[in-house]
Structures are given as structure tokens and as C-alpha cells.
Records
---
Amino acid sequence: MGPRSPRQGGVFPFLLAFPVLVWAAGCFPARPDLEGKAEHPVEVRLPANPSTGYRWTLDPPLQSGRILSETYEGNAGDLRVGAPGMQILQVVFPREGRFNLKLAYRRIWEPASVPPAQTTNLVVKIQPAKGSRTLMERLFSRDFAPESNIPQPEEEEPQTTGRRVELRKPR
């Protein structure tokens, strides 16, 4: 074999992949769009016009977040019928974590086969409610006592066999 050219291995593939990595980093926001506390409503405000029959709904409907209430607020000073405004959704999340809230702007009487007029994806970061322990603290707390009689590894006595183990060196 002859000497390696600079295009084989190493730096060249990385230089080709660098623009893709930069693009991918921009697609996944480091900061969430909204923040809130577990079991407390988070307000989501989206442009809407209810006189057209369209409204924002969860899409798909089975998500971690649940809509508690929705209201409509017209633009200040615009009193015309059919004028656009804001739909305000109160969404609650049952636990802390990072969620992807998917919403679709659709007419609710139309079948699901009709595509929505618009969609949006919001990243929501939910902190534990004040005074409550985080999910990890609840799962791995020190005061957790299993209800089983099976001994846990940290409770078992170390066992010695009396046999010696010989390690062989490779030749």
C-alpha cells in the first residue's frame, strides 16, 4: 500500500459533515419555548380567528399535556367581526420534564384525513412543583424501602470461593 492521501479518513469526512452538524444543531433548540411548573397551567398564545371555524387543538390528542381551558382575545382596537386575534390555551403537565407540545390549527368537525391549516411544535420545560420532589428523587430516594423479602445486592454478604483465579498474559 502506498501513502494515504489527505482525502482518506481523518479530517476530510468531518469537513463534509460540518455543515450538516451546524444545521442539525439549529433544528433542536437548546432553550425551551415555554417554561412552567408541574401541575400548574402554562399559557400558550397563538394567532387565531375563531369566526373561520378554525381553532388550535392538540395533535395528536393523546400527549403529556392537557388543555384545561381556551379563550379568545381580539386585537386591541380592532372591533370588526372576523378580525384575527389570539387563542389562549391553558395547558397543564402532570410531571416535570421536557415535552414537545404539538398543536394543529383545524376545524374540529372535519375528519382527521383533512390536513390542518397550520401546525406548530413547542418545546416546554416543566420544573417540579414547589415543595415536591423531582421524579428522580422519588424513584431513587434513600428512604425507599422495597416491599419484597428478596435481598438486594448491597445487603448481601460478600461470598468467597477459596479458589484462585490465574490471569494469563497474551503471547
---
Amino acid sequence: MKIKNFMAMMIAAASLSVGVVSCGDDDDEDAPAATDVKSLAETVSGTYNGVLSIQMMDMPFSDTVAYNIKKVDDSHINLTIPSISYMTMEIPSVEISNIEVKGTASAATASVAKVEGAITVEGEEKSYTLTDILVNCTDNKAVITYSITYGKMPRPMSCSFEGTK
């Protein structure tokens, strides 16, 4: 009799432990697969089309342009500022490399205090200085602001872009 009770208790204990372990439903069906997760830089990467507004002295100007953001790695991007035709000036496009992106996929920010360089245009070297570069991406929208001094311009142009992917 003792052996029957002992065996019954062992079977009950084994059944209970198997039942408790196998009954847990902790699978998160809504979570994306590991391959579906995009890096922050990949999320903001793309071509943004919209309006660039330029302010220099008392001469406002706007144009429809496209800014390109490319992923470098999971947390860095390259930003291509498009060429601009402003009054009698032709300002060529400039790429700013390896900008760190911070934030979340729905609200990412990248900034650079200052970038200097030179571009050869029609055989003449022209310097440029970009300052206070700020990229804000929210969902599929981008707001990009910066100031640019190009060539022998006496004052910087303030640029503000708003566009969508």
C-alpha cells in the first residue's frame, strides 16, 4: 500500500511539474523578429523632399529640394545638402560625413557644430563653412537647419528645410 501511495505521489508530482512548466504562455507574438528591427540610422535614412527656406539679410528665398540621408552604421549617418541656386550664386551640394544620431526611431536627432571645407567650381576654389547643423527626424518627416557661408559672402545664409520621406 505504501508503494502504491508513493508511486501515485511521484506520478502526481511529475505531472504537476510538467504541467506548470509547459503551460506558461510568455511568447510575445507582437514583438518583431530580430531581423525586422532597424537601427536608428537605418530608420532615418532616405530621401526627404520638401521646401528649403533661405534667409540672407532682407532677401528671403525658398525652393523645392531633396536632402539625402544615408546610413553609415547603426548610429551614424551622412547628410547630403543639395546644391542651391540663390540669386546669382550656384552653391554646389555638400556631404557631411559620419554624424552621430541619437534618440528613438520616432524622434531622432543629429547635430554638428561646424564643418569647413573647399570646393573647386569652374577652376576656382571656394571655401564654405556650415554651422549649427541640426537634423530632427520624426516618423517620416525631417527638419534640417543650418547656416552656410560660401565663398566671399559677407554674412551667412540661414537655411531651414522641412520635408517628408
